[in-house]
Amino acid sequence: MTKGHILVVEDEFDIAKMLDIYFRGQGFTVDVAHKGHDALAATRKQLPNLIILDINLPDMSGYDVCRDLRTTTRTSHIPIIFLTQKDERSDKIAGLELGADDYITKPFDIEELKLRVQNAILAAGRQKNVHPITNLPTGGPIEEHLRTLMRDTRHWTYIDVKIQEFETFSEVYGWSAGDEVLRFMALLIGDAIDKYGTPDDYSGHPGRDNFVVITHSNEVDDLIEMMTSRFLDDIQQHYSFIDRERGYMLVQSGGEELRVPLMSLAIGHVSTRTHRFSDIREITEVAAENRRRGDSSESSNSDDILTAW
Ligand code: CA
Fold it and tell me: CB neighbours (10 Å) of residue 171?
């Protein structure tokens, strides 16, 4: 289990390399981006636990990277530590005003940076309730986001996603394989929002096999279709050759052998285009009910699989 996933954004090769080696040695997972645009692209693929962000980058300033991350709903909660030049007080103030969580001046003491990184990750976990595997917001912040949306005049759609047969898969293949599936799901949601969503879209991870997407998109059907069909394609890779070939798992239960289908997505959604909600509970209840009924026309793929066994 890694201590967290850090994205280092630094164009000075030696510093980037040093941070990469050091934090890997400390048990973190590290990605390095040498340009601002690469950093933004990387965060859209996978949410890191923390970003170490140099202010002077070749293609755009660290401030602009920070501003983009903070104004994109999905990345707005990621802690950021700025790397600033020595004695540039205005740098620090500008960074903190933009919502950076901390800053450290070059040349820096690596031990001090490590402490700040650990503190920022811990603080984010405490305050903002993110899921430890996917770094997606959990129940509390999702409710908070829905509360602000109740006052939003734009239309939005709440999508409830459940990975069917996830628990059985985790039991058979182990929790680590299960965690891989959750990371894959978070990545898939990010890709779908990138393709069909808007910068204000939101995703959350309220329960182990349960995810949430809240989108302002007009292409909700396409977004759901992309998640459903790509999940069916890519989930195959998480199974052994034998299970993949026969299309189900064999599980012993009470002396009997059960055929358990491969994982698929069950999806339900509700939209302000068709519903008026009086409170938050109603939104999540209606969406979950639609999901259980298989109301989302796009979830027909998974229904086929369920009836097939
Ligand atoms: Ca630099």
Answer: 13
Query: Which run of H or of E encompasses 168?
Result: helix 166-173
**Both structure tokens of 142:** 């999702």
pLDDT tens digit at each of 309 positions of the chain: 678 899 999 999 999 999 999 999 999 999 999 999 999 999 988 889 999 999 999 999 999 999 999 888 888 889 999 998 766 666 666 767 777 788 888 888 999 999 999 988 888 766 658 888 898 998 888 998 999 998 888 999 999 999 999 999 998 999 999 999 999 999 999 999 999 999 999 999 998 999 999 999 999 999 999 999 999 999 999 999 999 999 999 998 888 899 999 999 999 999 999 888 888 888 999 999 999 988 544 333 333 333 323
In a domain, 265, yes or no: yes
- Identify whether residues 84 and 212 lie together within a single domain: no
Q: How far away, in angstroms, is 203 Cα from ligand 1 center? A: 32
Cα of 55 to ligand 1 centre, how many Å? Answer: 6
> How many other CB atoms are found less than 10 A from the CB of residue 150?
12
Residue 50 C-alpha to ligand 1 middle, in angstroms?
A: 18
For residues 194 and 199, give the distance between their C-alpha atoms in angstroms, rounded to a whole number: 8
| Containing structural domain, residue 84 | 5-128
Clarify whether residues 33 and 165 are in a common domain: no
| 34 and 112 both lie in a single domain | yes
